[in-house]
Amino acid sequence: MYFIVLIIFVAATIAAGVFRFNIWILIGGELLFIILLLLYSRWRLRKGQREMLSYVESVLFSRDAASADTLMNMPLPMVIFNVRDGKIIWTNEQFLSITGDRQHFFEIGINEMVPGFSTKWLTDGHETCPETVQLRGSSYRVYGNLVRAGEEGSRNYLGVMYWIDVTDLETIKNTYLASRPVMGIIMLDNYDELFRNATDTVKSSLLANIDNRIDVWTSGVGGYLSKYDRDRYIFVFEEQYLQKFINDKFSILDSVREVTAPSGVPATISIGIGKDAKTFEECFQYATLSIEMALSRGGDQAVIKNSLNFEFYGGRSMAVERRTKVKSRVMANAMGELIMDASQIIVMGHTYADLDCVGAAAGLACIARKRGTPISCVYNEKTCVADVMVKKLQKLPEYEGFFISAEEALLRADSKTVLIVVDTNRPEQVESRDLLESCNRVALVDHHRRAADYVTTSTLNFHEPFASSTCELVSELLQYLVEPSDILKLEAEALMAGIVLDTKNFSMSTGSRTFDAAAFLRRSGSDTLEVKRLFQNDLASTIAKYRIIQSAKIYKECVAISVLNSHEDRTIAAQAADDLLTINGITVSFVVFLGEDSVNISARSLDDANVQVILEELGGGGNKNMAGAQIKNGNIETVLRDLIASIDKHLTKSEQNGG
Q: pTM value?
C-alpha cells in the first residue's frame, strides 16, 4: 500500500509540473494524506497486536482462568514466540525491562532481541536451556515448553520461555570454582645426575639457585610452597591462578634448565598438578599420579590431572637415562615368578606389529621355555609388518603353534593366564581390546612415553621411556633369567633386529644400556649380517619410498612434510620419514598417507624437536624422536591442517633453528 501511495505522489508531482497546478495546494494535500495514513497505520498496528494477544491468550489461557491470571501477572520475565520463524508475538513487562526493547518486539525474532541465543534446545524436547544466558550484564537460567496453536493435530507450535535471574548464584559459583584448591608436586627429576661428584659448596649453590627460581615462579598467587624432601616441593594454590601458569607455558621448566652443574648437566624439573578433586587427599593423589606420568614420559614437563584425564605441557628435552641394573634385576625376578605361576602366557603387541614387537615376543618365549610354561603370541597376518621374521620363527620346532589369532587366544585364556603386553601402553592400540579386558593378570613391557589412556590393570609394569626399544628391555630380563646358550640364534637376531629398528642402526635414542644389550645378544649368537638382511627392500618398495620423498615439501625451513592421497605401505612410509631427516637442515619429518580406514602419519625428529607431543594433539603417540598416528574417518586435508596447527603450537623457535 505504501508503495502505491508513493507512486501516486510521484505521478501527482509530475502532473502538477505539466499542467501548472498550484504546488502548495498539492503539498498540503499530500501532507494531509500522510497524516491520515499514519493514523490509519497506527490503528491497524494496535488492532493487530490486540488480535494477536487475544489469540495467544485464547490458546494459552482458555481452559483455566486462574492460571491465565497467574501467567499474565507472573513476576518472572516471560516471552512467547512462533517456533517456525522465531518471531516474538507476546512478552510481559518484565521481559521487556531486561532486554531494554519496548517498541519492536512484535517485529523481530527472539535471537535478534537476545543476540546469540538459540532455541534449538526447546525444539529438541528439552525444558531447560543447557547454558546460562548472559544478557546486559546479568545471567539467566531459561526454562520453556511448547504449546500447540490451533486444532488437535496442528503442527503450528508456540514457544513459551521463562527467564530466571541467577546472577548472584553465578557469581557465587564462579567465586567458588576460582578458589578451589589445586595441589602441585614439583620434583627435581635428575637430582642424582646433577650433584654426582659435586662438593657441598656446589650443591648448596645449585640448590639455592633452583629454590630461588621456583620461589619467584610461585610468588604472587597467594599459594603455599614447601620443600618436603631433598628433591620435592609441594605447592598449594587457588584454581584461578592455574590458567596463568598454563598461558605462561610453565616457564619454570625453561628457567630451571638454565641452571647447569659444573659437569655440564642442566637441571630439569617435573611438575604434577591435581585439580577438580573432592578432598585434599584425592587432590594429592591426582598430583602424585601426574608426577608419575611426567616421569614416565621422560621428565622435564608439567602434567595436570583432573577427574577425567591428563593434560601435558613441555617435554621437549631429551630424556636422561636413569635406569639401574637393580631395577632390571628386580623386574626380572618378578617376571620369572609371574611366568612360573601362570597356566600359560599370551604375548600381545600393538596393531601392525613390527620387529620390536616380534623380537620382544621371541625373547619372552625363551624365558617361558626355560620355566616350562606354555606361551603363545597374538598374530594378525594381514597387518603384521614383520612377516619375514615371523615366517623364520615359524619354521623352528620350538615355535610350532606359537603364533595364534586373537580369537583363539580369547578362547584359550583362563583365570591363571598371564597376558604380557609389549611395545605399547595404550589399550586402543593392542591387537585385541577384548583379550586385554578379559585377562585379570596383565604385565606390561614398553619403552614409549606413557599416554594419558595407558593400561592401568597391569600387575607388573616394566615401563622405561629411557630405553631405546622393548627388545632392549627384554634383553635385560634375559640376562638375569637365562644363560646365553639357552637363547636360540634366531631369537637373538629377532631381539637385535628390534633394537636396530628403533635406534636406526644405533644412531638415535641409544644409551650405554643399549650397547650392553646388543653385546649380550651378540654373545648369544646374533648375526649382524642376517639382521641387516631383514631390512632390505625389493625394487618396487625402494621406488615407492623415493616417490614419497620426492613429494615432500619444506615447512618452516626445518620440517619436511610429504602428503600422499593414496594408500601406502606403513613400513615404506616410516622408512621415507627416516630418510627425509638425511636432508640438510631438516630436523623433523612427517609422512601423511591413507590407511585402510584412516589417515596415517609417520613422524621422525632430530635434536630437541619432540614429535610425540605434536602427534598427541591428533590422537597419536610414540616417543620423542619417533611417533605415529591413525586418524579414523578423517580426510587428508583436515588432517594436514590439524598437523600444521600442532606443529605451530609445539615447535619452538629454538627447535626450528636446530637447537
A: 0.65
